[in-house]
Amino acid sequence: MTESAIGASSPGVAARLPRRPLVGVRDPEAAELWGPVFGDQDVGALDADLTQRYPGRPHGECIAVTGRITDRQGAPVRRQLVEIWQANASGRYAHQADRGPGPLDPHFTGVGRCLTDDQGQYRFITVKPGAYPWHTDFNAWRPAHIHFSLFGTAFTQRTVTQMYFPGDPLLAHDPFFQAVTDARARARLVATYDHELSVPGRALGYRWDIVLDGPAATPRETDA
């Protein structure tokens, strides 16, 4: 029986159904946790270059992020869909749930994707994300990071993880990074600056390889 039917047939009796739509609980950190929704379109030429989608150039330091996706034997994972999402250079996600203090960048969405090649390599051109306050503790900040999502070749290989940058002083204070208790595993979450990967006059290069399974697997978010 609907709410209107109850009200009409039982005057003077309080309806037990709500008269207004449910109020959603909005998590202020939802932009940190939700990945992009791309749909089923083919991967386009500009999907891996997050700096070339608008007439204007996004703010911040342009970077190239490259690496290999391998299994536990070191074999390349070919034609793997790699998805990323990140904050902009001011530490703000282009997401309605993010109400952080950093300004939005009209020339940067913070989401991208690509397919690995026959050697298991991926490559993105983007901007280095900024740190931002994390409202779970006093003076808590999240270090610069990029979220990665990969499906692998089997259900058990599904990986959602985060890439960090070398020399970031906030790593020592980050609860997500420090939740990985094995120091060697934590080190696998940090990219390496690689000058040979830099694009002259445009972008600084970082290498970050991902191992999907096995003893040397890249830690997943669920491992923290």
Order of helices and strands: HHEEEEEEEEHHEEE
Q: What number of domains?
A: 1
Question: What are the segments in which pLDDT stays under 50 over at least 5 consecutive residues?
Answer: 1-18, 22-29
The CATH topology name reads Protocatechuate 3,4-Dioxygenase, subunit A
**Overall helicity:** under 10%
Given helix and strand content, the structural type is mainly beta
Count of individual beta strands: 11
Overall mean pLDDT = 84
Output the number of helix runs.
4
Oligomer: single chain
GO molecular function, one term: ferric iron binding
Domain Intradiol ring-cleavage dioxygenases: 65-93
Keywords: Dioxygenase, Oxidoreductase
Family: Belongs to the intradiol ring-cleavage dioxygenase family.
Give a quick precis of the structure.
9% of the residues lie in helices and 23% in strands. The chain contains four helices and eleven strands. It is globular, with a radius of gyration of 21 Å.
Polypeptide structure, described:
The protein is mainly beta and 224 residues long. It has one domain (43-223): Sandwich (Protocatechuate 3,4-Dioxygenase, subunit A), CATH 2.60.130. Helix content is 9%, strand content 23%. The protein has four helices and eleven strands. The protein has helices at 3-9, 30-33, 175-178, 183-187; strands spanning 62-70, 81-86, 111-115, 121-127, 132-133, 141-142, 145-150, 159-164, 192-193, 204-207, 210-211. The strands form three sheets. Strands 1, 4, 9, 10 and 11 form a five-stranded mixed sheet that branches. Strands 3-2-7-8 form a four-stranded antiparallel sheet, with no helix packed on it. A two-stranded antiparallel sheet has the order 5-6. A hairpin with an 8-residue loop joins strand 7 and strand 8 (159-164). The longest helix is centred in the first third of the chain and has 7 residues, at 3-9. The protein is globular. Mean pLDDT is 84; it is low at 1-18 and 22-29.
